[in-house]
Design goal:
CATH class of the largest domain: Alpha Beta
CATH architecture of the largest domain: 3-Layer(aba) Sandwich
Distance between the termini: 38 Å
Strand order of the largest sheet: 2-9-10-8-12-14-16-19
Largest sheet: 8 strands, parallel
Shape: globular
Strand content: 15-25%
């Protein structure tokens, strides 16, 4: 399911050939974690839940108890299959290498609650992205995030009063961790170097790992071969050399669950949630998702619900993007919207300016509902800047991208990319959650309440279909303004 919309080609100077400072890469000393699932990823149309492609021979299994019965392990092996991953505390396993007859027999076991074929959701291939670079003379450690080179065009940070939080010294803490479930992170970009804990980062996309080793042999396998995860990560937390993030001290862990082609298997995403939760993530950002007809995959919802409930009960807050189909999630039939319909998550809609006078503003009506955003009172928790046709959200661009249109990003770590979508909205909320966690601690429900109570109540009073409880306001949620 598409979770981003690419910046329109009408921006003057699609690629700015500015003089850039080469940033000397540091070969990581930490060992690269590579998860074991051997997934054969497929492409799926983003607009039709009924067209979701399944992964042949691979199944998501949820048991009636919170453990994996040993007799089931033996039964799988007897039928020629393999359990590639399992979570003993949760009673969930991923089985591969079995035929239809074996799957049918295993699904009839009395200890099995649900047994569904694994499925792949897809991000759309980018048509065009806009990249720009910071000139080398500008490279210096800023005194505050507002001193970042590209901050003058970051209407999004001012819209949520992040600059007021920074001015009050609220820039986050390295003791707070946000898991980025996405396409990976360029952890050597100026804005991200030192922010990513590689010892806790992991790839659940083996097909990308071999490409990384061949094309970028000094890189950890979690490096971003696309662009999406790097952009999202730098919106949550940035060193603010090039562009500011919501925080500047938060620790990130990269959990690669989507491939260089933008495909994200359900098993990889669920494994990613469990990994991040079990490795100390206070917040998980998921700028991804999809949708499926409940009648076609009745067990999917149950498995997703069990996993998100597990994260919540273990102190991890999940933030997800609402999606870009302009769909009314209150009236979408039997569609289960992943992951907005899951319990204990914050589902984020997108806002963006109606117009801008120039690249650095001024901007008109920055809180307008984005034309692409999904909406619905029953689903949307809050809204945050995602950008519009008038103005993008700018953040770090991956130096290891394989997208031809932004190949310039590979030349230096001073490039940013402009993109719009609910993918860009969600990390603003994750960043605010990280600020609140650093200041107040608190459980996921307490942080969620602070975010919603501090939001600017826009649209219909109370809960609005487009804004939920409102567009987030970092300064108000932190108690800096009334």
């Amino acid at each position: 399911m598409r979770r981003f919309v690419l910046r329109a080609a009408t921006i003057a100077g699609a690629i700015v050939a500015a003089a850039c400072v080469e940033y000397a890469p540091v070969t990581p000393t930490e060992s690269a974690n590579t998860a074991t699932p051997s997934l054969q990823l497929a492409t799926v149309a983003a607009s039709s839940p009924a067209s979701i492609e399944t992964i042949p021979g691979q199944y998501l299994v949820m048991f009636k108890g919170n453990s994996i019965p040993q007799s089931f392990v033996a039964d799988v092996a007897l039928r020629g299959g393999t359990i590639v991953t399992s979570h003993e505390k949760l009673g969930i396993a991923i089985v591969t290498g079995i035929n239809d007859a074996a799957a049918a027999a295993l699904s009839r076991r009395t200890d099995v609650q649900t047994f569904d074929q694994d499925a792949v959701f897809s991000l759309d291939d980018p048509a065009e992205l806009v990249v720009e670079a910071m000139p080398d003379a500008a490279v210096a450690s800023p005194a505050s995030p507002s001193a970042a080179f590209f901050f003058p065009r970051q209407w999004n940070m001012r819209a949520v009063s992040a600059n007021l939080a920074w001015a009050a010294g609220k820039t986050g803490s390295s003791s707070v961790t946000v898991g980025i479930l996405d396409t990976g992170i360029d952890y050597l970009h100026f804005d991200l170097n030192g922010r990513v804990d590689l010892s806790r980062s992991v790839s659940f996309v083996p097909s990308d790992d071999s490409v990384v080793r061949a094309r970028f042999p000094t890189r950890n396998v979690i490096t971003d071969l696309y662009f999406h995860g790097t952009h999202v990560a730098a919106t949550v937390a940035s060193n603010s050399f090039v562009a500011a993030g919501m925080t500047s001290r938060t620790t990130l862990i990269a959990v690669k669950v989507c491939s260089r082609r933008g495909t994200c298997s359900t098993s990889a995403v669920l494994n990613g949630i469990l990994w991040a939760t079990d490795h100390g993530a206070d917040i998980i950002n998921m700028s991804l998702g999809g949708g499926f007809h409940k009648r076609f995959a009745g067990g999917f919802g149950s498995v997703i619900n069990r996993v998100t409930n597990y994260a919540n009960s273990n102190g991890t807050l999940i933030v997800v993007s609402a999606g870009n189909e302009s769909s009314d999630l209150d009236h979408n039939g039997d569609i289960y919207q992943t992951y907005c319909n899951a319990p204990n998550v914050i589902c984020v809609a997108a806002t963006g300016p109606a117009a801008q006078g120039g690249i650095n503003g001024p901007w008109t009506n920055i809180d307008a509902p984005a034309f692409y955003t999904n909406y619905g009172r029953s689903a949307i928790s809050v809204a945050a800047p995602g950008g519009s046709a008038a103005s993008a959200v700018w953040a770090a661009c991956s130096q290891t991208t394989l997208i031809a249109s932004i190949a310039a990003c590979r030349t230096a770590s001073t490039f940013v990319v402009g993109a719009i979508g609910t993918s860009m909205a969600a990390p603003h909320v994750s960043g605010l959650a990280a600020l609140l966690k650093a200041e107040t601690g608190g459980s996921p429900s307490q942080i969620r309440a602070r975010i919603q109570q501090g939001a600017d109540d826009l649209g219909a009073p109370g809960t609005d279909p487009f804004y939920g409880k409102g567009r987030i306001n970092a300064a108000r949620s932190l108690g800096l303004v009334n």
